[in-house]
Amino acid sequence: MRTFALFAAICLSAAAAHAADMRMLRDPKQIARAFPAKSQARVVNVWATWCAPCVAEMPDLRAIDDAFGDEVAIVGVSLDDMIPGTTMGKIAAFLDKQKVRWPNFFYMGTPDALADHYRFDGSIPITIVFDAKGREVWRSKGQIKKDETIAQLREVLRRNR
Fold first, then answer.
1. If phi over 0 gives left and psi between -120 and 50 gives alpha, with beta otherwise, what is residue 130?
2. How far apart are CA 34 and CA 24, in angstroms?
3. Could you give the CA distance from residue 107 to residue 7 in angstroms, rounded to a whole number?
4. Domains in the chain, ordered, with CATH?
């Protein structure tokens, strides 16, 4: 019996290690708190599973996350709550399937509040880059272009040195 309990505990901890980092959010002002203090560039990506360009850019965002390590931090903001019946668990499963490891918020506030906070028209995906002091330095409307985004992030990091 102890062997089974130990095996179950190991399996559960391994599954938890791969679970998506999902958090509920109502106030867009709280997003900035999700970034580690040591990150020199902070990327906010607003997306949804029902948005084809959002899903298509996930591998590029994953490659960017892998390329920069701790210097660049990404936080996703999912607008999937706009669709009735969508749960945070469904979004976490989607992120696990996409192998996304950066924090993601399941946004439950009003879309207008988020759009006002980040000054965009509500069209997604949108990716906004901030420097370490929280100043916006670049944004991309629509699906990101990986090479252009990497170049912009390198420039932000160069300026912060």
1. beta
2. 12
3. 36
4. 20-160 (3.40.30.10)
d(CA 91, CA 81): 10
Predicted pLDDT of residue 8: 39
Asked whether residue 7 carries a pLDDT value surpassing 90, the answer given is no
Query: pLDDT digit string (tens) for 131-153?
Result: 999 999 999 999 999 999 999 99
Q: Please tell me the distance from the alpha carbon of residue 103 to that of residue 63, in angstroms, as a whole number.
A: 15
Q: Is 65 exposed, middle or buried (0-12, 13-18, 19+ CB in 10 A)?
A: middle
pTM summary value: 0.87
Among 46, 41, 64, 71, CA closest to 134 = 41
SS3 82: helix
CA distances from 69 to 64, 72, 125, 140 (A): 9, 6, 23, 21
Decide: 105 and 24 in contact? Cβ < 8 Å: yes
